[in-house]
Design brief:
The complex is a heterodimer of chains A (331) and B (505). By secondary structure, chain A is an alpha/beta fold. Chain A is 42% helix and 20% strand. Chain A folds into 2 domains: 167 residues, Bordetella uptake gene, domain 1 (D-Maltodextrin-Binding Protein, domain 2); 130 residues, Periplasmic binding protein-like II (D-Maltodextrin-Binding Protein, domain 2), CATH 3.40.190. In chain A, the strands form 2 sheets. A 6-stranded mixed β-sheet of chain A has the order 2-1-3-10-4-11. A two-stranded antiparallel ribbon of chain B has the order 1-2. In chain B, helix 6 packs antiparallel against helix 17 and helix 11 packs antiparallel against helix 12. The N and C termini of chain B lie far apart (71 Å). The chains are: A alpha/beta (331), B mainly alpha (505). At the A-B interface, helix 2, strand 2, helix 3, strand 7 and helix 7 of A face helix 3, strand 1, helix 15 and helix 20 of B.
């Protein structure tokens, strides 16, 4: 009986939906959220939070299943998306790696194999040093690194990925030189810094917050055009909003942020893209999402349509320049 | 003492009817996912994760960790009964556990495995209770060279083990390293050995290899030997479980040694897999009759199981205190922690003592619950072997292929498992050991990453492996483990030569 009621309700909803032209497309079977990272990774948390919000507010009538395809730095998930051409029941979650991976590795997909749906947030990058390091601001640290080129170590997650790109950008902008050490993920980069095995890392706020709370690491500046949103104090009376931007700190560097993106396979109906963009927009307006953004100190920014494609084009160009300078481009 | 008071408070949090019910549910579900190869603990935990969003964090983590314990026990069950390790860390259990089952001693093997696993887990939890603060600081001392040294120790303890010819061991290990290097390389960011096949991009999952090498390979051999398990004749009596339990104190030395190895590998982040292999190797070396190992020696079941579970529970500490997940399952749980609004890291103990100590208390209770539940199921599982092979054989094949598909939802993996099955069969026919291949596949890429990170740290100088007392002593132990058997055999060789000459003269 209950099932019948739900079915009847869904039927009624689709009748209403048919009258309202904005939601002409509806999923007719369970929807797969394809995650381009392993379980526990940043993209995994992103997709699972979205899943939990959709479930709580019943934003999608059909069940949503999360599937991890994080092989090849996430390429596995995008290639899976390519294979699902025309299937609007597969939604791929990622970052800017969707359009940057094909530059640095020979992979079986191109950006044109995916349809952009939306971006929900920008994850931030900071320069972190050890809690008891003698540097009080970014300028002092950069000067110290410049004075002894090739002796300071920068930890990051993976190779030819955001952390190493940012390190290359800082080197280009300041003339300092680091030994970049790639680790499996931001968590390892955080503990390596807390243990004093490296001199700094460029972790996202969420990856270092545990160590910052304990005073094992401290942030010097954030690569964001404006300061982060105010928060409760985290360590020593300072919160996210008290960290200066790197521009304020005297680093001649444009902002560096990583979008949290949502994609569909190629050749899906335009209505389906609009449907998911609408669902994601609703997700981005829930209190649970606001809470997630505040807790992980990301910047909430919903983008879709033209705004998103322009952002992608600009971000792609900025990163591609670094890839060319560093000689990472493979094709 | 402060820890003890916190623990009592934790028991207050964990000991409610609701939580105990969750533990039972978690353990039973865990056994189910553990018994199906491929659908291991990480899959089980991620399937359950959405259900926990609405729970409070303590209940949620109790459910997930109980599921994890259950899956570990379930993994040992299939290792013993069908030679299919459900989890990487139960591979070493197959070496003696499966021969025991074939000899009709399945009940004994299962009971030994579960009881010693319970003891190992207890040892790990007691350590967490007593030393939480110290261990968290100690683990911070570990950087890439130390990681490499720990992996090196594990490999060294295995090469020197003997059994098969050292050359065959090395060939098998080298193949494992090659398989482990397929896919994206995190140090260089390049794709390796995929030959532009998209399906190889994610690498070859260890689980696929294990399903093929052990499960299917074993089946092929059983078919050749006349389509039967010798276990069929065995009687399964519930009181055999008790009889086995009474025999356990005899193995106190093995239990103690394996607990220590397990705890050590759990807090130096070597992990349960390395721990179980190393413990097995050590048991064989120190045994008075090493030739019995591999043919159904109870100590060969007890040692890896104890170390596996000791390491598994001890490894929860680095996860909570440092935010480094020690295993795939821990990674999923950490994702859960973040969704529930907790930040794993050094401050978790200070900010949410109710959560941390509730979890630790639940580890005591959960393991007791798990041991009781699995012991009760031993007769049931052992009777599976009484089903005629012509029925159970095809079922195992189906389960293996479903398992292979579940790992990554890829059809290609089914073919891969079949190919590994043929390799496993050939290895057995040609007397090549499979274990080194599996070991190299599981920790080979981690060892490689750690080595290359060390080389980046030192800008290419090997002296980094002697640069501080910690890494130097780890390397020294590793080298000793590698060289001692060699010295022993050379000495024996020389003595033989000398006596031969003396005889001539």
């Amino acid at each position: 009986m209950k099932h019948f009621c739900i079915a009847a309700g869904a039927a009624l909803a689709s009748v209403i939906a048919a009258v309202v032209p904005a939601a002409a497309w509806q999923p007719t079977k369970s929807v797969e959220f394809v995650v381009t990272s392993g379980p526990g990774g940043g993209t995994d948390n992103f997709a699972r939070i979205v899943q939990s919000i959709i479930a709580k507010h019943k934003l999608i009538e059909q069940p949503v299943v999360v599937l991890n395809k994080g092989g090849g730095s996430g390429a596995e998930g995008y290639i899976y998306g390519k294979g699902a051409k025309g299937d609007a029941h597969k939604v791929v979650f990622g970052t800017n790696n969707a359009y940057l991976l094909p530059y640095v590795a020979k992979l079986g997909y191109k950006l044109s194999d995916l349809t952009p749906v939306s971006a929900l947030a920008l994850d931030e990058f900071l320069i972190w040093v050890k809690g008891d390091a003698p540097f009080s601001d970014a300028k002092a640290y950069i000067e110290a690194a410049k004075a002894k080129p090739g002796s300071f170590k920068m930890a990051g997650s993976q190779s030819k990925d955001t952390d190493q790109t940012l390190t290359a950008m800082i080197q280009e902008a300041t003339g300092a030189k680091w030994i970049y050490v790639p680790f499996q993920g931001g968590g390892a980069a955080a503990t390596q810094l807390a243990g004093g095995h490296v001199d700094s890392n460029t972790n996202n706020p969420n990856e270092n917050i545990g160590q910052w709370k304990a005073g094992q690491v401290k942030p010097l500046c954030v690569f964001s055009p404006v300061r982060l949103a105010k928060s409760d104090p985290i360590h020593d009376g300072k919160g996210w909003g008290d960290i200066p931007t790197c521009k304020e700190a005297g680093l001649p560097l444009e902002a560096f942020q990583m979008p949290r993106t949502v994609w569909l396979p190629a050749e899906v109906p335009a209505d389906a893209v609009a449907y998911y963009a609408d669902v994601m927009e609703k997700v981005s307006k829930t209190p649970e999402w606001a809470e997630f953004i505040a807790r992980t100190a990301q910047t909430a920014r919903f983008m879709k349509g033209k705004e998103l494609t322009e952002f992608v084009a600009k971000d792609e160009a900025a990163n591609a320049k670094v890839f060319k300078n560093e000689g990472w481009v493979v094709n | 003492m402060e820890n003890f008071a916190s623990l009592l408070h934790g028991f207050e949090v964990a000991l409610t009817a609701h939580h105990i019910a969750l533990m039972f549910a978690g353990v039973l579900l865990g056994i189910l996912v553990g018994v199906l190869p491929g659908l291991g603990a990480p899959n089980g935990v991620s399937l359950m994760l959405p259900l926990t969003f609405a729970m409070d964090p303590v209940s949620a983590i109790i459910l997930l960790t109980s599921l994890y314990w259950g899956a570990l026990f379930g993994g040992s069950t299939t290792s013993i009964l069908f030679n299919i390790p459900g989890e990487p860390s139960s591979v070493a259990t197959t070496f003696d556990g499966h021969p025991m089952a074939k000899q009709g001693r399945a009940t004994e093997a299962l009971s030994f495995a579960f009881l010693s696993a319970g003891i190992g887990a207890m040892a790990g939890v007691i350590l967490i209770t007593l030393l939480s603060g110290w261990v968290a600081r100690f683990a911070l001392k570990f950087s890439s060279p130390e990681y490499f040294a720990v992996y090196f120790m594990t490999f060294a303890s295995f090469v020197g083990l003997g059994g098969a010819s050292p050359l065959k061991t090395i060939v098998s290990m080298a193949m494992g390293f090659a398989f482990a290097s397929i896919g994206m390389d995190s140090v260089s960011g390049n794709v390796r050995l995929t030959y532009e096949f998209d399906v190889l991009l994610a690498g070859v999952s260890f689980l696929i290899a294990v399903i093929g090498l052990f499960g299917l390979g074993e089946l092929l051999q059983t078919m050749e030997e006349g389509l039967r398990f010798d276990g069929v004749k065995a009687k399964v009596r519930p009181r055999d479980v008790l009889a086995t339990a009474l025999k356990l104190p005899r193995y106190w030395l093995a239990l103690l040694r394996s607990s220590i190895i397990g705890i050590w590998m759990g807090i130096t982040p070597g992990g349960p897999t390395a721990a179980s292999f190393m413990s097995y190797a050590m048991a064989k070396r120190s045994s008075r009759n090493p030739e019995k190992f591999g043919k159904g020696e109870p100590e060969g079941v007890i040692s890896p199981e104890t170390a596996d579970h000791a390491a598994g529970s001890a490894a929860m500490l680095p996860m909570l205190a440092l935010g480094i997940p020690g295993s795939a399952t821990a990674a999923v749980m950490m994702g859960g922690l973040m969704i529930w609004g907790l930040n794993p890291g050094p401050m978790l103990f200070v900010e949410r003592p109710d959560f941390v100590w509730g979890l630790i208390a639940s580890m005591y209770l959960g393991n007791v619950v798990a041991v009781i539940v699995v012991l009760a199921t031993v007769p049931l599982f052992a009777s599976i072997l009484r089903i005629p092979f012509s029925i159970i054989g095809p079922v195992i094949v189906v389960v293996c292929f479903i398992g292979a598909y579940t790992v990554g939802n890829k059809q290609f993996d089914i073919w891969l498992a079949l190919a590994f099955g043929i390799v496993g069969y050939l290895f057995k026919k040609l007397d090549y050991p499979i274990a080194p291949l599996v070991l190299a596949m599981v920790i080979g890429d981690k060892a490689e990453d750690a080595f290359r990170q060390s080389m980046i740290f030192s800008q290419g100088s090997l002296s980094i492996f002697w640069s501080n007392p910690l890494v130097a002593s780890l390397m020294a132990i590793g080298l000793a483990l590698l060289l001692f058997p060699l010295i022993g055999s050379t000495r024996r060789g020389i003595r033989k030569l000398v006596t031969a000459r003396a005889a001539k003269a």
